[in-house]
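Tokens for chain A. Residues wanted.
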């Protein structure tokens, strides 16, 4: 198990039944980067990856 899996597992346990929009997720990512600017690159990469999931060229 990767260290990050613990956070993912906690997310599923605590919020797994929630329904959210991508707009809400984007707001939360922006708020996270505002508080933790050192993680901006990782959040940007993750958001780009999510945005392009169905793009066959990527």
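Reply:
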């Amino acid at each position: 198990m990767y260290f990050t899996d613990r956070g993912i597992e906690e997310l599923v346990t605590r919020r797994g039944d929630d329904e959210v929009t991508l707009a809400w997720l984007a707001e939360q990512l922006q708020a996270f980067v505002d508080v933790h600017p050192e993680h901006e690159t990782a959040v940007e990469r993750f958001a780009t990856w999510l945005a392009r999931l169905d793009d066959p060229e990527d």
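The mean pLDDT is 91. Residues 22-35 form the longest helix (14 residues).
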